[in-house]
Amino acid sequence: MNLNEIINDAYFKDEVLAEQKPIITIQEKICAYPQNFICINGLPKSYKTTFAFFFIESGLSGREVFDIKVNIEPGDKIILIDTEQSIYDFTRQSKNLKRALKVDKLPVNFSAYLFRKYEPEEILKAVSLIVETQKPKILILDNLTELIANPNDMLLAKSLIQYLKKLSSEHNLVIICLLHNAKSTLMSIGNIGSYADRGAQTSVTVKHDREANITTMEATLMRSDTYFNPISIQFDTEQKKFIQITTQPKEKKSRKFILNDITEAEHKDIVRTLFINTANFTYTEFIDEIKKIYGVGDNIAKQQIVRYLRGNNFVNADNGIYTNNKNK
Length: 328
Prior knowledge:
Elements: H1 3-10, E1 24-26, E2 29-32, E3 36-42, H2 48-61, E4 68-70, E5 78-82, H3 87-101, E6 110-114, H4 120-134, E7 138-142, H5 154-170, E8 174-180, H6 190-199, E9 202-209, E10 214-222, E11 231-236, E12 241-245, H7 264-274, E13 281-282, H8 283-294, H9 298-311, E14 315-318, E15 321-324
Parallel strand pairs: 3-8, 3-9, 5-6, 5-7, 7-8
Antiparallel strand pairs: 1-2, 1-4, 9-10, 10-11, 11-12, 13-15, 14-15
Helix pairs in contact: 2-3, 5-6, 6-7, 8-9
């Protein structure tokens, strides 16, 4: 496509469009229209994949599942790309799905591909071909981190997110991306996480409380609607299935903050996230943001974190105005 074709394709035509039906809603809140992607974030083993299968179950059954509703037509294709699970682990997940749908065989409009042993470039080429030939309405990528050689590489991360935007737009589908969070910051990993959150229509976080055996999904970014209430589930050993509960996981005692536990790459990622929607902060505003994102108090924010960020040139401070040092 030459430059004139790109400009013509990008030109906004001021015309009346048909009402667009949301593809994914949670508690009737709009999470995804066609030609968009959403992110499910969480620590490893936090049951992100379990929640992804609830989206699949809703789409295949036409029912609402734990307040999740996937609005596609009967027969519309759902495709899952798994980059982490072995065939034995995935078989267990598929058995749970069949049990929930009350079927002996997976529906013909659902397909899964296990790419654990392949390289990111090979997987992406395969995904493009699968989407081109099978034309799904829902594409699930579990896990997005495995589709990039280096999650901290800015150019690779941006290229992958542009790929998702193009794929969803050209094929009029919704993509559900799963992403790991870093243990130290509880934020999605690396530049891929930053760009994914920036480009997603909705981002949710899944947290698992081991003591209470409760898993909760909550909204962290909603671009098209107000935030839904957190959804908590628990596995009922007698019924041998997950049930929805109203009790939220109890708050854990905050652990001691150790600055050295956070890597330089993670600090960079946090700074980029801070400045996604604003060019600068006053000192007071910057301290408030640092306290929220690092989960610390006033003294640690001022005496440790801000000093570290300034000392390592992650941020610039000029006359009390803090800006991102994009050259760092």
